[in-house]
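Data card: per-record layout.
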Amino acid sequence: MARVTDFAFNPPPSLAPTTPAPHRAKPAVSRSSFFVRFPKKPIREGRVFPATKVAVVARYGGGGGGYRPGGGYGESRRPQGDARVADPDYDPALDLDRVKSSTVRLLDEQQNMIGVVSKNEAIRMANDADLILAILSVDADPPVLRLFDDMDYKKHKYEQQKKKRVQQKRSAANRVDIKELKMGYNIDSHDYSVRLRAAQKFLKDGDKVKVIVNLKGRENEFRNIAIELLKRFQSDIGELATEESKNFRERNIFLVLMPNKAVLQKGQEQSKKKETAATEASAKAQ
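The structure for this 286-residue chain is written out next.
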C-alpha cells in the first residue's frame, strides 16, 4: 500500500513569476510559496485511477485590503465613530467651536453692547482682560457672546440650570400618556365596572385612554357585540372625555378617548370652592 502526500518543491522557470509590467507592483513571492497538493487516497493494486488533479497554491503578501488584527480584510484597527467618553464637566456655553461664524455680537461684563467683532478679536479681548467668554445664543445671526468674570459666570450658569429644570417640569406636566384597558366581548359586570373606574381616574389625571377588545379565532363572529360594548363604555364615560379615534374593522377593535379639558377645569374649580368653604367654616367654628 502506498499513499501520496503533500510535498514542497521549487517551481520551474515556467511557473516562476515573470517580470511584471512597469505599471504593476511586483508581488513579493518566496521560493517556498508554491506547493502541490495531491488527494490522500490509498492506491490499490490492479485499479486504474483517472488523472489526478494538481492544485497549485500561491500565497504572497502586498497590496491593500490585507488582514489587520481586530477587523476584517481592508478594515482599520481604529475605532469607528465617535468613541470619546462624555465629559461630565463639559459646558456648551464655553465651547467656542460651536460658533461657526467668523463674526460675533459681543457684550461686556456689565451687559453693555460692544458691537459686532470678529471671533478672534473677542477671544483676544477676553484673554487680555482675564475674563470668561461665554455663548449666550449660538443660533443668532451673528451669534451673541458675553464677557464674564468668575463670580458673574457662576451666577449666570446657576440661573440657566434653574430655568432648564423649570422647563423640564412644565414639559413633564404637559405630557399626555395613553393608558390601555383591555376587555373581552363577554366581560362580566364587575370587571367592566373596574375598568370604567380606572378609565375615569386616568382621564381626570389628564391621560388618554385606549379601550381594546380582542377578538380571537371564532370570536370574530361576535364583532357587533364588541362594538356595542365600546359604545356603551363611551356612553358611561359621558362628558368626561371626547372621542379621538377608533377602529372597528380590524380583529382587535379599539376606541381612544381623550380628556375633556373644559369639564376637568370646572371640576377643579368646584373642588377648590368646596375646600375654601370648608376652611372658612372651620375658622368660624374656632
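Known properties of this structure: The mean pLDDT is 75. The first strand starts at residue 2 and ends at 3.

See the next section for split statistics.
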